[in-house]
Please model this.
Amino acid sequence: MRRIQINKKWSFDFWDALYYYSNFLASNYYEWEAEHGVTYKHSNAVTAKFTLYNDRVWDKDFNQVFARDQIRGYFPIKISEKWAITPYFRYFLNDSSYDGQKNLTQRIKNGYRIGTQIAYNVTPKLTLWGGAAIEATQWKYPINNHMTSGRSHSQTYYLGQIGIKYSWQ
Model:
């Protein structure tokens, strides 16, 4: 994550990543993933961050096979030196898949994710964290293995997370 400070309250934050997937059993793929947005610092304990997230995947011939665009919001709150909570949301603008002939195979009609993450700093380098979220989506076509239901091809995803972060620097 890179940050360009605009003034004491506002910054422009971004990250971009390029990937190359070399696969012996399937085709090779290229991917670009990025998040660009602004952060508003209300105080040392409370900030708000709004971003545009993009993800693109191309096959070995550079035909696009996947595209995703989301508006994301993060609201980090530092409760104490040890505890922090970050409620967040994602609103799906686009989520589309294509076959090798550039035909649409799936597209999201609408979707969102609402969640939160909680972090506990054990030491300055070691953090324990957990999170929970719900993601509701409607797709243009049914998803295989009965992952969607009804005529709206809806799907609800429940996410639980737990982890450890360690900073080597």
Observations:
- The first strand starts at residue 2 and ends at 5.
- The chain has no helices and ten strands.
